[in-house]
């Protein structure tokens, strides 16, 4: 009996083992026979994610394609005369080393970027890119190079206009489309295009971090766009474009402790650049209004001293003799509140408002003199060149 039960148990164990093996093979190779969906493979997972996953991030290829042909590289050079070493004045040393009375000359090179703003060959860039250049060469998007001449520059806004010969085929150069500052808001996507470190044309992306940045000590007239799009040495004079590829600014400066981008870059708004560019193309220079005063900011301490409710306005610290301000009766100690009906927030706003007036025009001013409001009318003068601390 025990032998019979042992055989029966062996038959049962073998049957169960074979059944489990068959079940495993069927569930692996033919799961549909058991009414199950097949386990997804790595390949099927990848296909499903590609087909049904989240869409790819927005691309700005069209904006870049639209703007890139209009951005150029600018190469400058100038002669530098090395002074004679003072030891060479010694007659004994001259006897051994010979006469080297003439200082040697070397050439220094610089680079930057620019933007073609007219098919006739006008290029907008930074003044500091071409300020001391004796020779200027421009490399176009197609790789060709041309000599360029300086049409004019404005150191107070750090803008300059160059010109190269237009396309000989008659098609004209690829000019960029100028954008509108009214449409630009904080948070908008922008692209910075230029030639950083001379590596070649490069596009970086960021957003508009702030508008109307001033009091930075970079230029006399400041109203910068701040962006976190990477701007590095060599980007100066390049294009800041919106998500459609329209020019909204000229890349000018960065805040950096290392010389590289830290995500704080500044660009001159196209509204300012257009005005400067048009004046330079038309007359070769930029004309601004001037009244001949020195102003300082009203601090909370000064506001308390003068009995003011707030710090709005500009304190007149000095008046140039014979200037429009002097002739119009403005005195040191006056507080300038408005120019031509527009309120003055601080000395920088005062500078911008006065500079925006046309020389020769008669403009009303609003002043606080002690406890009285005075409203003289001044004939605007022409801002001297080069200007200094006065406005």
Automatic annotation (TrEMBL):
GO terms assigned for molecular function: serine-type endopeptidase activity
Its signal peptide is none
Q: Which UniProt keywords apply?
A: Hydrolase, Protease, Serine protease
- One Pfam entry for this protein is PDZ_6
Positions of the PDZ domain:
292-346
Give the UniProt record's GO annotations in the biological process aspect: proteolysis
Which family would the database say this protein is a member of?
Answer: Belongs to the peptidase S1C family.
The name under which this protein is listed is Serine protease DegQ
